[in-house]
């Protein structure tokens, strides 16, 4: 917990400085001034785990006549009066949040308001970005960016900053940081297309803040099809992931396309369907297996290929054979000394836990070589397409690794 009184004083000083600027240029620009979307009072003084930064608030009023900065100040202190409608009525927010729910079954990253801030970089607002920039001019845009930069790094200091636009927000913010007086740090920006989506993302780190630029999530330019990939990289960085591993996801579907010997369309990659109809189960299973292998970097076991470590004592295999399934073993498994000849710590409790998760063994032959199998079709996301199944598998085995390890290390149950 930060010193709330000190942070509030810094924030109030920042508001005064921003309002002075708005009052100075507002009469000439004659556009509404409003930046803050969330109610910052719920988060100020707390650790900001994630901050979302848009370009401008997109609140147009053709009859508007600028008077003063009072409304801008109000928004800084109270947020947008429509904030409570964001989950239902704001495409920029709803699309991203809904995708978190679709992929992970959870939207807490966007719901924990005590540790979240959503604001905009440009203080003046209109129907379209080009309209705003044409009317305010470069010098006003630059000063807005400077003040926003100072809010981010001098006051809020978020762990993860997500910019809603690479060109209009991320790039311009990085430019402003580099121009800050006394700033000497080298900023290394990496631009990439996660999971081979058609949209470019950007990432870097400044001080302790990871800055991630993503395409605007409102839905234009086909971005909805890319959101599952984007949500995954936001989730990974939110949970302390490494920049290099996130950037490496650019190779995922390149690998898939090469091994399939034909080019998948964006729609096929995300939804697993061709324009003329649905894929067969075999095609679905193949995409799931190859996508998983493209994602997982850390492979173990020289004795037998395609098994992946999920914890110190457990490994997983994702295979399209046998109808397509996920299989779990302990890492010391040996075909010559299989489960008909040996047991592991708390084996019955482990098998029971896996059964509760949908991992079952149909016959004695399967019981000799695995602790549990789960068919791809048992995942709730099966009807949504292979990419959703892959993301669900990845989430599940991350959790299983911890859960199985905990059962394994307990005293005999």
Account of the protein in words:
There is one protein chain. The chain is α/β, with parallel strands linked by helices. It folds into two domains: 4-250, Uracil-DNA Glycosylase, subunit E, CATH 3.40.470.10; 272-408. It has 15 helices and twelve strands. The strands form three sheets. The protein has a six-stranded mixed sheet, sandwiched between helices. Strands 9-10-11-12 form a four-stranded antiparallel sheet. The protein has a two-stranded antiparallel ribbon with strand order 7-8. The longest helix is centred in the middle third of the chain and has 28 residues, at 129-156. Residues 254-278 and 297-303 have low confidence and may be disordered.
Q: Helicity level, as a percent range? A: 40-55%
| Low-pLDDT stretches | 254-278, 297-303
- In CATH, the architecture of the largest domain is 3-Layer(aba) Sandwich
Shape: elongated
Number of helices: 15
Radius of gyration equals 25 Å
The largest sheet has its strands arranged as 2-1-3-6-5-4
For the largest beta-sheet, the strand count, sense and barrel status come to: 6 strands, mixed
What is the assigned CATH homologous superfamily of the largest domain? Uracil-DNA glycosylase-like domain
Order of helices and strands: HEHHHHEHEHEEEHHHHEEHEEEHHEH
């Amino acid at each position: 917990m930060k010193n709330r009184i000190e942070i509030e004083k810094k924030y109030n000083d920042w508001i005064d400085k921003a309002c002075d600027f708005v009052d100075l240029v507002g009469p000439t620009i004659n556009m509404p001034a409003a930046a803050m979307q969330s109610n910052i009072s719920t988060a100020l003084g707390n650790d900001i785990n994630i901050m979302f930064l848009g370009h401008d608030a997109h609140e147009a009023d053709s009859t508007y006549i600028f008077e003063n900065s009072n409304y801008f100040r109000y928004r800084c202190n109270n947020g947008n009066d429509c904030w409570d409608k964001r989950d239902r009525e704001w495409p920029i927010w709803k699309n991203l949040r809904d995708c978190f729910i679709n992929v992970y079954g959870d939207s807490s990253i966007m719901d924990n308001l005590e540790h979240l801030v959503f604001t905009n970089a440009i203080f003046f607002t209109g129907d379209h970005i080009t309209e705003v920039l044409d009317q305010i001019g470069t010098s006003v845009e630059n000063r807005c960016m400077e003040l926003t930069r100072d809010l981010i790094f001098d006051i809020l200091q978020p762990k993860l900053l997500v910019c809603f636009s690479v060109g209009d927000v991320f790039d311009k913010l990085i430019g402003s940081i580099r121009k800050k007086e006394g700033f000497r740090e080298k900023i290394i920006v990496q631009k990439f297309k996660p999971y081979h989506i058609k949209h470019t993302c950007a990432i870097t780190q400044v001080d302790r803040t990871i800055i991630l630029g993503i395409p605007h999530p409102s839905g234009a330019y086909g971005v909805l099809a890319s959101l599952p990939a984007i949500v995954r990289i936001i989730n990974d960085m939110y949970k302390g992931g490494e920049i290099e591993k996130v950037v490496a996801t650019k190779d995922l579907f390149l690998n898939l396309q090469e091994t399939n010997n034909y080019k998948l369309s964006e729609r096929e990659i995300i939804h697993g369907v061709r324009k003329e109809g649905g894929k067969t189960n075999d095609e679905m299973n193949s995409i799931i297996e190859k996508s998983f292998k493209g994602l997982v970097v850390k492979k173990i076991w020289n004795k037998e290929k395609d098994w992946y470590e999920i914890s110190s004592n457990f490994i997983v295999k994702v295979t399209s054979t046998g109808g397509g399934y996920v299989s779990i073993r302990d890492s010391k498994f040996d075909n010559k000394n299989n489960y008909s000849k040996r047991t592991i710590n708390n084996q019955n409790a482990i098998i029971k836990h896996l059964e509760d998760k949908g991992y079952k063994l149909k016959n004695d032959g399967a019981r000799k070589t695995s602790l549990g199998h789960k068919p791809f079709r048992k995942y709730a996301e099966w009807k949504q397409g292979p990419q959703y199944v892959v993301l669900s598998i990845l989430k599940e085995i991350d959790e299983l690794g911890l859960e199985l390890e905990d059962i394994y290390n307990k005293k005999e149950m």
